[in-house]
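Hi, here's the filled form for the chain we discussed.

Project: internal
Contact: R.S.
Residues: 150
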Amino acid sequence: MSMQEQGSTQLQAVSSAMVKLHKEQFGRGPTHARAHFAGPDALMCLLQDVLLPAERKMVEMGDPNRVRDSRVAYQAATQDEFIAAVEQIVYRKVIGFASGVDPDADVVFECFYFEPRESGSDGDGTLTPERAREFRRARTPDGESLNRLS
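And the returned structure, exactly as it came back:
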């Protein structure tokens, strides 16, 4: 598999993981999701059609800030799950995570900043065998293995 195909597969997997996590968190997932690498050490996933019917009603009533505040609070409470999913897929350590919502546009942005490549990767965005083994041994805060393939 070429590097481009591998990157495309990773991005599709990240998009799917974000949809799944949003569905688990909010009871429904977005209808559109697309992940993109943003330079060598960042990834952004754009999720569209994310709001619940009650949230849409709040926006229609002129209260998008309440929707924004509650979404940001939920994301802060579950950020470890989002980070773990991305780390498992791309085999890079996430050192920064931000989630933003634009209620008026009905979009969410999930942004991940990775540890720079020179701190343990082989220079092409993948982990060295030693760091990959560390990820396979790592566990999420609830004790679930990050490497669900094993």
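Let me know if anything looks off before we file it.
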